[in-house]
Amino acid sequence: MMRVMLRVLLAAVIGMFATSVVLTVTEIDDGHWVWLPVTGTAMTLLLIVVSVVKVFAGSSAARVPDIEAADRDGRVFLAKILDVRATGSSINDNPVCEIRLLAQPRTRAAYQTSTRTLVNLGRLAGLQRGAIVVVAQPDADRPELTLLEQPPAHWQRLADTDSRLQAMDAAPEWTMPPARGRNRDGLLRIPAIVLVLAFVVGAGIRIWPVRDVALAVVQGQSVEEATGGVDGTTTTPPTDPAADDSPTVEPMLFQAAQTQQVIDDLVAASGVTQFTAVQFMPTYATADGLTSPDAVTTDSWLWRDGTAQHQGPELIQSDAADLPDELFDVTTVDWSLIEGLVAQLPALTGIDDPDPVVYVRRAVSSRVTTPVEFSLSTDDDYDDAWISADATGQIVEMDGGAPDSPAAQWEAANG
């Protein structure tokens, strides 16, 4: 049953990973990029586990729990090794081998069959062509055999002194289809519809938080339209080009009034003011905050189209002892500073058409003396840049940017 659960879980995780790739590539949900590495890592680990399970499932080891009972039933006897072939799989450096056997049962005529088993390296030298070994038959009505590493003493003596089976060269092949409900590796057969359903469930779990946007895109809207970027409410106020030739940045959510509204909506929806991070993009925002005022766990929130939506527990939880040092009260931050910082990006970075991301958290830079810091990043086809500011809006660090830009000069001077 555990093997079945692992394979169904793998199908669900593959569904989540594939959906994460699609959502990231289409930028429908690029604010939750962490889903991609998390589901990819989980998928890789499950693939490894399922592969190991498959190797063990195809191995004959430990399929006869009661050797004495099998001996009394006549299901322990001798077999001659006709061929040994490595499968290419190994566990702890011990190879999994396909062994061709000529068996001499006590209750029927001799026959040929194959078994796959994990072979201890110390025993490999004794499993050469022509060697006589002791085997057990898990089911008297099926040809499958298990090599016994520690056979009953009297059977080992018979194997050491055998000459009759040693002289036998061939016997008819005994083949049967896999047992009912199992595949040829011995695993329980899972109907394809179950795996497909698990894949769909995994995809559904991943797409549910952005279902409205995804549906709008499927119906023909652009991602920008579906996410509220083109709705007539966030246009840039008209300016006189002759008055100022410097590049401008469309504020969108970076406008002071809208930025504050996002914070108010997040506080109202979450019921807390203590957060570990708030991230602003042009048309949406994400935040991680306490699950409840007295909790030691954190949840994730998405603000989009005027609504703060709960996304569930934060994927990576902080240690309870470290959490207090990561929290800050969003009601004590001057969020209007973001508009001015974003407006300075073109002049500071030399990137004329920036696509900013603003990240607000407890200060981690040694140059920031206030409890909270603002980190802004942007890029174009050739350059990327970062600036950091303290809670008063004072810029304290810069790096990257176009050559000879203030950011590049600051980085060259300060390292």
Give a verbal description of the structure.
By secondary structure, the protein is α+β, with helices and mostly antiparallel strands. It folds into three domains: 2-58 and 191-218, no CATH class; 67-161, OB fold (Dihydrolipoamide Acetyltransferase, E2P) (Beta Barrel); 252-414, no CATH class. The protein is built from eleven helices and 14 strands. Strand 13 and strand 14 form a beta hairpin. Residues 229-251 have low confidence and may be disordered.
How would you describe this structure in keywords?
single chain, 415 residues, alpha+beta, OB fold (Dihydrolipoamide Acetyltransferase, E2P), nine-stranded antiparallel sheet, five-stranded antiparallel sheet, 11 helices, elongated
Helix content: 25-40%
For the largest beta-sheet, the strand count, sense and barrel status come to: 9 strands, antiparallel
Give the rounded overall mean pLDDT: 83
The unreliable regions are 229-251
Distance between the termini: 57 Å
Q: Please give the number of β-strands.
A: 14
Secondary-structure element sequence? HHHEEEHEEHHHHHEEEEEHEEEEH
What is the CA-based Rg, rounded? 33 Å
Q: How many structural domains in the coordinates?
A: 3
SS content category? alpha+beta
Q: What percent of residues are in strands?
A: 15-25%
